[in-house]
Design goal:
This protein is α+β, with helices and mostly antiparallel strands and about 170 residues long. The chain is about 25% helix and about 30% strand. The chain has 4 helices and 7 strands. It has helices at about 100-105, 110-120, 120-135, 140-150, and strands at about 5-10, 15-20, 25-35, 40-45, 50-55, 65-75, 85-95. Strands 1-7-6-3-4 form a 5-stranded mixed sheet, covered by helices on one side. A two-stranded antiparallel sheet has the order 2-5. β3 (about 25-35) and β4 (about 40-45) form a beta hairpin. It starts with 5 loop residues before the first strand and ends in a 17-residue tail after the last helix. The model has no long low-confidence stretch (mean pLDDT about 90).
Length: about 170
């Protein structure tokens, strides 16, 4: 996430990528809330206990120009508590501009990621690059783009953490 904990998407059902450190937890809880704090969706997410980046496809349709807050909390000993470690962020669905629309119609995922990045569409940029990297983990061009993206938000320490391909949709 950018340091503002806020990002945009053009997708109705965005993908949120989350870094999970090594943990004894084998499950997490993902929730999505509106700006009034109403829970729109909550679901359990299996995790491996290893350090990994997972992808969560938001099951709720996001409305254009509306902000949402998401949370991912680890279940410690199978439970949530006030001491449960969690991460959160904000997401807003926006309308794609002409350049983004054109890149989406071409079908070249790297060009899509570049267009998303150029226009600050964080969630779609990172999800698209993650899909490419998971499919081609030894591609030096993709590794370079992934490293640069993580460095741009001061997350270079997770550069080598595996992206869980089975969670990428």
């Amino acid at each position: 996430m950018p340091q503002t904990y806020y990002g945009t998407t053009v997708s109705q059902r965005a993908e949120i990528l989350v870094y999970i450190p090594r943990t004894q937890a084998l499950e997490a809880v993902f929730s999505l809330k509106d700006t009034e704090g109403n829970t729109l969706h909550e679901m359990e997410v299996p995790i491996s206990g290893r350090a990994e980046v997972i992808s969560i496809k938001v099951p709720t349709l996001l409305t254009v120009d509306k902000n949402y807050q998401w949370f991912l909390a680890l279940k410690i000993d199978g439970q949530l508590s006030t001491r449960t470690p969690y991460v959160d962020g904000w997401i807003k669905r926006i309308r794609p501009n002409q350049e983004i629309t054109a890149s989406m119609q071409q079908g070249d995922l790297l060009k899509q990621a570049e267009a998303f990045g150029k226009h600050g569409v964080w969630y779609d940029c990172v999800a698209t690059l993650a899909k490419l990297k998971a499919a081609q983990p030894n591609n030096p061009t993709l590794n370079k783009h992934w490293s640069e993206l993580l460095e741009s938000v001061k997350l270079q320490q997770i550069d080598r953490v595996p992206i869980v391909a089975s969670n990428i949709r």
